[in-house]
Every structure is written in structure tokens, then in C-alpha cells.
Amino acid sequence: MALPTWEDHPEPLAAGSAPLPQYGSGSLADLLPTLAAGMGVPGQTPAITELAAADRNCVFLIDGLGWQQLKAHPDEAPFLTSLLASSRGGTGRPLTAGYPATTATSLASVGTGLPPGAHGLPGYTVRNPATGELMNQLRWQPWTDPQAWQPYPTVFQLADAAGVHTAQVTSPTFEHTPLTKVALSGGTFHGRLTGEERMDLAAGQLAAGDRSLVYTYYAELDGAGHRYGVDSDTWRGQLMYVDRLAQRLAEQLPPRAALYVTADHGMLDIPFDERHRIDFDEDWELRAGVALLGGEGRARHVYALPGAQNDVLTCWREVLGEQFWVASRDEAIAAGWFGPHIDERVYARIGDVVAAAHDDVLLIASEREPKESSMVGNHGSMTAVEQLVPLLEVRT
Questions:
Q1: Rg for the chain (alpha carbons), in Å?
Q2: Is residue 205 a contact partner of residue 190, using CB atoms and an 8 Å limit?
Q3: Distance between CA atoms of 290 and 293, rounded to whole angstroms?
Q4: Rounded Cα distance, 295 and 114, in Å
């Protein structure tokens, strides 16, 4: 299947004109089911047909390393750059993250093998229909029962039950978080502080079984991008470091193994001016009829006051429609933004209005979200720079 095009779109920006993630054939949600199917785990489908089966599979997820950012920095990432042609089974093509292109959503897609409309983490913050409050799905605040929020088993749990040696190797701070529980649990958790320790232990865990599925993760590249931007020396320094980590892991792979280096989303820097940063908290038109503002600056969920849904949709289209894809909940669902189907429990978590950035623009909320509004690097929408992620491969 050919990648969707991220070129010009018809005006006004209709919901159906957004370039959809490749759910079912080339999205992050398809990765672990494909690997698990190759190891004989029951019920899993090899959706990414370009990938060859391996007995031992390791996924190294680098938070924030988009396809376009990697291709733009060959000097800082010589090892990863040397693997670009290996991406997606040697086709030299990327995967798509899924919508929204944000960490909580993407990690849930990776771990469960399900698109956002099924696993139910469809944004950075979304309304909890049971309480009417916004829930931050990355930090899990306010707390809600993880099993009720995301009831499906992870691919790691299914692999472990099928006799595959399964392990996660990441920061010890993530061991007991609800997001880890609903998205990445199964097998054994190994917390290690340094990147080098994680790479070494991941290689050891990969060799520990005749069939192995190992996940390891690095977050600091994303943090540098948010704080300083992907055009900063700090971000480049992090990329240089993570490039060395990937090479360290690749050089320790046991026989019959495949290493896949991927990411949860890309990122772009947004200038600090009124043209590029529209402030919801200072715009009375956008605030009118809105009860809650969820999501993040490039992927908003808008929850209207009772009876105001149509007015909010009309206003948001008039104000933002040339810069954002603005859709009603039902339009976004019908267009396939969150995947081919939506679970009933997930339906009301999605905004009455959903707005995804097309241009290099951000819808901030300076009073409600001061920290997020001050970020240099941002992500979330369906543009190529945010959606496309590598799937680099090393095999032994």
C-alpha cells in the first residue's frame, strides 16, 4: 500500500482530507502483533507484511524521534542513518504513529496492538465520561481504574502466556505507573537508570529465551525537543547519544534476533508569536460554548456545553478551518482518524469537536496549560513531520 500524501489539501480543510495513519498495515499498532505472529503467539496477525519473522525480537522505542528529524541529521546519527534503507522490512519506508501522534496514545497502540479507538487513550488529555473531568492519560491524573479504562490484554501478556520470554527494560520510575500497566505490562520489568545499562540488559534478556520479545525505551530526546526544540544543540546532543545507544544494542544481539528501532511520534518547533500560537484563553470566540478544552496544542478535543455542540463546531471551523482540520466527533470517527472502529466506552472520551493542526501552528491555553504552552517543540497532529516514524532493522 502506498503511503498517503502529505501535500496540499482542499479548502476548507474537510475531515476526510486529512492523511490517515496506516491502521492495519503500517502503523505502530501493527508492530507487536506482527512480531508476535512470527513467534507463533495465537491470535496475532502479521499486519506489516514487509517484516520477516524472527525468534527473538527487540523493540527500542526512542521517544520523539520522527522520520523527518532523523533524515535531517545524518551527522548526529551516523549509525541510525546507515539503517534508513532497512526501515520497514528493507523498503526504506516509515510507519505512521496513529492519531493523535502523542506519547500516551502511541505507547498504548504499541503495547496493545490496537488503534486508539479501541484501546481508549485517544489523546493527551480527554474527558472521563464517568466524572466529567479531564484526565491526563500520560500522568494518569486524576486517577481512575486502569483496567476499566483499558481492558484489553497487552501483546506482551499474550506472548508471555504463549511461552515467549518477555521483558521490558526501561527507567525504574515507570515500573508501577498506570500507563505501563495498561500498555506495556507482561513478562518481567527491569528498571535501569542509564541508557547503557538498558541496552546491555535488553541484549541479555533477548538471549535469555529461544523465543524472546523485549522492549526498551529512551525518553530524554523528546524532553530536549519540548524544552529547547529540535533545532537546538541540546536536542542534537541527545540524538548523538541515542545513536550510540542503538549501536551498542545492535552490536550485542544474540543469534536469530531482530532489533527494531522506532519512535512514538515526530516533532516540530513552533515560533513564539501570535500568528503561530493562538491562545484559547484570550480568544472569546473560541471559548464560547466550550466546557472543557482537552488534548494538546496540535490535537485538540473540545467538549461543548449542553446544546452548544453545533455552534462550537461552526465557530471553530470559521476561526481555524484554514489552519486545522476541524471535525465533529462523528465526522472524525467516520473519517477514520482514531482507527477503523470506536469502542462504545471510548466514544464520549473524544471531543464534541476535534481539531488537528495542518499548518505550523499551535492552539495554546496560556492560563490553563502554562507548562505545555511554553514548549518549543510540539506534536500531535497528522502531518508528516509528526506522523512518520522509523522502523529501522538489524538482524543476526
A1: 20
A2: yes
A3: 7
A4: 20
CA–CA separation, 285 vs 320, rounded Å? 11
Rounded to whole angstroms, the Cα distance separating 145 from 16 reads 34
What CA–CA distance (Å, rounded) separates 171 from 310? 45
CA 179/CA 177 separation, integer angstroms: 5
Tell me the C-alpha to C-alpha distance, in Å, between residue 80 and each of 83, 85, 244, 356, 359.
Answer: 5, 10, 9, 30, 29
The 10 Å Cβ neighbour count of residue 344 is 6
Separation of CA 214 from chain center: 19
> Digits of tens for pLDDT over the chain (396 positions)?
344 454 454 467 888 888 999 999 999 999 999 999 999 999 999 999 999 999 999 999 999 999 999 999 999 999 999 999 999 999 999 999 999 999 999 999 999 999 999 999 999 999 999 999 999 999 999 999 999 999 999 999 999 999 999 999 999 999 999 999 999 999 999 999 999 999 999 999 999 999 999 999 999 999 999 999 999 999 999 999 999 999 999 999 999 999 999 999 999 999 999 999 999 999 999 999 999 999 999 999 999 999 999 999 999 999 999 999 999 999 999 999 999 999 999 999 999 999 999 999 999 999 999 999 999 999 999 999 999 999 999 999
Scanning the chain, the segments in alpha helix (DSSP H) are 31-38, 67-71, 78-82, 87-90, 103-112, 116-119, 146-149, 155-161, 178-183, 195-207, 220-228, 233-250, 284-287, 309-320, 329-335, 344-347, 370-373, 384-387
Q: Cα(383)–Cα(61) distance, rounded to whole angstroms?
A: 20
Residue 114 three-state SS: coil
State the pTM of this model. 0.95
